[in-house]
Every structure is written in structure tokens, then in C-alpha cells.
Design a protein that fits this description.
The protein is α/β, with parallel strands linked by helices and about 130 residues long. The chain is built from 3 helices and 7 strands; from the N terminus they run αββββαβαββ. A 5-stranded mixed β-sheet has the order 4-3-2-5-6, with helices on one face.
Length: about 130
């Protein structure tokens, strides 16, 4: 009489399932960028880079949307948010889409000037030339 060898559990399908689940969660997860709400196409420039700190105010502007601190707002709401800022030396980082009308840019800059927020930085992409 022949002795039968004990068969072990085949782990190959389990490993396949684990990899498929891992790929699914990586692809379906959303990576949050630091307080950015709008997808913008920034203009290019040869400006020096500055370090971004946590206590700075982020304003984003495109053709038809406006966001502050990662939250979409209207111009009236932006003015209310700017009015609440006590420290006028706080840095204001402004990201403006290159296709935005000049009128909208001036509206934001006027609000910043109205509340004496003059520590301003305009974000651009690095020039590839």
C-alpha cells in the first residue's frame, strides 16, 4: 500500500487576492494636497523658491472659482475670512490660474489691500527653459 503525501494549502491564490486588494486601495484612495481646492494651470516664471509654512494663508483663483485655505468660497465669504485675520504680517500665498481674467485677480488683490495684508507671494511653476 502506498502512503499518500500530505498536501499543503496552496497560498498562490491568496497572494494574488492580497495584491489585487492592495492595488485597488492604492488606485481608489485620494491623496489630499496641502490645503489646495482647485486644479490650476499656473504660469511659468524664473522666480526664486520660498519655503511654505503652516501658518500661511492660501488663496486659489481660477476662471470661475475661488478658494481660501482649501475651501471653495465666494468673494463675500473671502472678505469675511480676510476680515477675521488679526496678524497682518501673516504671509498670503496666492495661486492664480494663467487663464483667469485680470478683473478677478484685481478683485482679490483689492480685498487683500483693504485689510492691509501686504505680505503677498504669487505662486508660479518653474520655467522649463
Amino acid at each position: 500500500m502506498k502512503r499518500r503525501e500530505q498536501l499543503g494549502i496552496d497560498l498562490t491564490p491568496v497572494i494574488d487576492v492580497v495584491f489585487i486588494l492592495l492595488i485597488f486601495f492604492i488606485v481608489s484612495s485620494v491623496f489630499k494636497k496641502d490645503e489646495l481646492a482647485l486644479i490650476l494651470d499656473l504660469p511659468e516664471a524664473n522666480a526664486k523658491t520660498t519655503e511654505i509654512k503652516d501658518d500661511q494663508i492660501f488663496i486659489e483663483l481660477n476662471e470661475n472659482k475661488l478658494a481660501i485655505k482649501g475651501i471653495e468660497v465666494s468673494f463675500e465669504s473671502l472678505e469675511a475670512n480676510l476680515q477675521e485675520i488679526k496678524d497682518n504680517k501673516k504671509a498670503v500665498i496666492v495661486r492664480i490660474d494663467k487663464n483667469t481674467k485680470y478683473e478677478r485677480v484685481i478683485k482679490v488683490l483689492d480685498l487683500l489691500q483693504k485689510y492691509n495684508l501686504n505680505n503677498l507671494a504669487l505662486v508660479t511653476n518653474e520655467d522649463k527653459n
